[in-house]
Amino acid sequence: MNPASVSRTILRARAIFVALVVIVWHAAAISANYQSTSTQADYVIICPPAYVQTIQPLADYRSVHNGFRVRIEQTDSIYAQFGQGTSPDSAIKRFIRNALTTWQDPKPQYFLLAGNVNSVPSHKENGIVAPPLIYEDSIMVDDWFVEGLGDTLSYPGPAAAIGRFPAWNVADLGTMVNKTVTYEERVDTIGRRIAIAVADYFPQVDSAFEQAAARRQFLASPLWPDTLTGHVRPTSPRHRDRSQFRSLWGGGAALLRFVGMNNWYQFSHSRYFTTWDTDSLPPTSFLPFCTFQGDQRFEKVDTIAIAV
């Protein structure tokens, strides 16, 4: 045999061996990352690999500002370890269950899904189909990821707090990270005194959402003394159109309450407010804590969105 040919064969064999060693080592590292009982974190961020660099400043801020032990876990690694024979959302739930049951104490208290449903899936559940009012066949529920651990109640309770940055792309995520850090750094801002409520309108329920918004604002007033309410109903004296609502939020707020019907991606079919509007708000306006109260989507013009 030609010596040069033998040499090339040996080199190829060595390369294959090294590649196999690297693959085996990488698999072991993934396993140790999730299965080791020495793993510990207070705050866990779940995101696709493309978002890691963008979310890193928030992880650093939570570590320094809040004193949390923070881990960023990538969806592809989660799917590789927990996704065999199941859907992506179930793989994420398996990962969270593993973290809450096998990781070192203290267990994670907070999970952040960094990305909208196009990059980090939610869990889809059957909706309520009850014509003529409700026609929603399914809804997205993030709470499902942290439910069902040691429950003794007839309904599932959360084992940890979970939230989502509903960013459709890297640019949106960067905006949300920057605004969140800016908001928390400016503790003396007047925006922390403000609670905004927006009441939906649907003829079949008359002013029910407006009354509910008024009650919520009354309860909020001891902590947020400056309460502002806007109505979707065009004939209301408190009606605010799209530009007026954006201007109101642009002034800053600590709490934003949506009271009414839901749509999966926008704050009404007439685009009253959408997730894409977030990055067009003034740089000094903060991303407040958002709450939703009400029913599922109505296929009508004036309906409030579930993802903002």
CATH class of the largest domain: Alpha Beta
Structural class: alpha/beta
Number of helices: 7
CATH superfamily of the largest domain, please?
A: Gingipain r, domain 1
Biggest sheet, strands in spatial order? 2-1-3-8
Shape-level CATH architecture of the largest domain:
3-Layer(aba) Sandwich
What does this structure look like?
The protein has 308 residues and is of the alpha/beta class. It folds into 2 domains: 43-161, Rossmann fold (3-Layer(aba) Sandwich); 187-294, Rossmann fold (3-Layer(aba) Sandwich), CATH 3.40.50. 35% of the residues lie in helices and 18% in strands. The protein is built from 7 helices and 12 strands. The protein starts with a helix and ends in a 14-residue tail after the last strand. Mean pLDDT is 75; it is low at 1-32, 264-270 and 296-308.
Features:
single chain, 308 residues, alpha/beta, Rossmann fold, 2 domains, four-stranded parallel sheet, 7 helices, 12 strands, 35% helix, disordered N terminus, disordered C terminus
